[in-house]
């Protein structure tokens, strides 16, 4: 296992912010980065959105396939070899982006993290089998689909009903992830993020400020 004590100084820490679509990952990552910067840490924020596969790979099982959404959306090989493993190995140069979804083509960006104390990585499915071992600390934002779907779709003017057919791919894909990987159990910290302004800790493997654990 690569996972180690989260207090260290020989390399940047890797913090994974996990959760379903619309759970508030980007917002939480920004808030966490600002808090860490206020106490003097240098922070880099990266996203799974910059590690997508090409459409032909993402849609190989069908454009509306939930299993395809979970299994094929992201370029895990590039994420691991270009970003996660280099951070773990104390490298100063990492791949911070490998794909442009708008252009549907590879677009590799490199970043120098030699002065970075913490790399915050936010995105879907971060506690899947291939990735969970890399996080020094993983945080899962637990949000009801009735809230997360409406929250996420509001940005694009899409249907807010999680039961609507247009949302089936995303809701069912997230359920496949939860059933296969149990991120609520794998995450170091689980947060109830239904209300962004008053998020609360549900479970915490570090033993502070916990309350009863949620049901998957």
Structural class: alpha/beta
Count of strand segments: 8
CATH superfamily: P-loop containing nucleotide triphosphate hydrolases
Shape: globular
CATH class: Alpha Beta
Could you tell me the CATH topology label: Rossmann fold
Major β-sheet strand ordering:
2-5-1-6-7-8
Order of helices and strands: EHEHHHEEEEHHHEE
Average pLDDT value? 92
What is the quaternary state of this protein? single chain
| Beta strand % | 15-25%
- Number of individual domains: 1
| CATH architectural designation | 3-Layer(aba) Sandwich
End-to-end distance = 25 Å
Descriptive notes:
- This protein has one domain (13-204): P-loop containing nucleotide triphosphate hydrolases (Rossmann fold, 3-Layer(aba) Sandwich), CATH 3.40.50.300.
- Helices cover 31% and strands 23% of the residues.
- It has seven helices and eight strands, in the order E-H-E-H-H-H-E-E-E-E-H-H-H-E-E.
- It has helices at 25-38, 55-58, 66-72, 76-88, 145-154, 168-181, 183-186; strands at 13-19, 43-47, 93-100, 105-112, 118-123, 137-142, 189-192, 200-204.
How would you summarize this macromolecular structure in one to three sentences?
By secondary structure, the protein is an alpha/beta fold. Helices cover 31% and strands 23% of the residues. The model is unreliable at 210-216 (pLDDT under 50).
Keywords, please?
216 residues, Rossmann fold, two-stranded antiparallel ribbon, 8 strands, 31% helix, globular
